[in-house]
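Late entry, evening session. Most of the bench is empty. Finally got around to the prediction I had been postponing all week. Sequence below, unchanged from the version circulated by S.P.
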Amino acid sequence: MGYQGRMGNVIHYKMGDKYYSRSAPKKYEQTDATKARAKVFGRASSIGALLRKNLSSVIPNSSDRKMQSRLVAEIFSWLQLVGNRPAAENNQPSFDFLFSLNSEAPRLSSRWNVKVQVTNPSPDILQISIPAFIPNQAIKAPPNAVEVICKIATTIIAIYRFLRIF
């Protein structure tokens, strides 16, 4: 055949030494709402990537696609909730230990009895309060456990860079 290009709804192309034809993809018109949600999702993906990079020392398998998807979904939900008000007193991004970085392990919320509080007492201060850590009271260890390792990590990301009117 030897033709490359488009004829109506059919695209002709060459790959290697062979020529192929396929139907042209359908065009979808995005609404303004769809474009806005896509922008927020893009921001959530960027924030998730930064979190994974900055918290790599405590994430068991940072390349786990299921964990990445769940993390971005949590961030996306938070971004929709707070809109363009990231520094209000009661809307800081805290997953309250309901989010598990390791889908194979039991949820931390079923083992951790300490309530960590994240507040924003003033525009330039983020306060993380962790009550006194008493191992026998703070952690429900599995039966016959000999040792429990607890890693705590924090990171700061300039979220305002990702928040624009959407």
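Two things to note before I forget:
The mean pLDDT is 76.
DSSP finds three helices and five strands in the chain.
Will write this up properly tomorrow.
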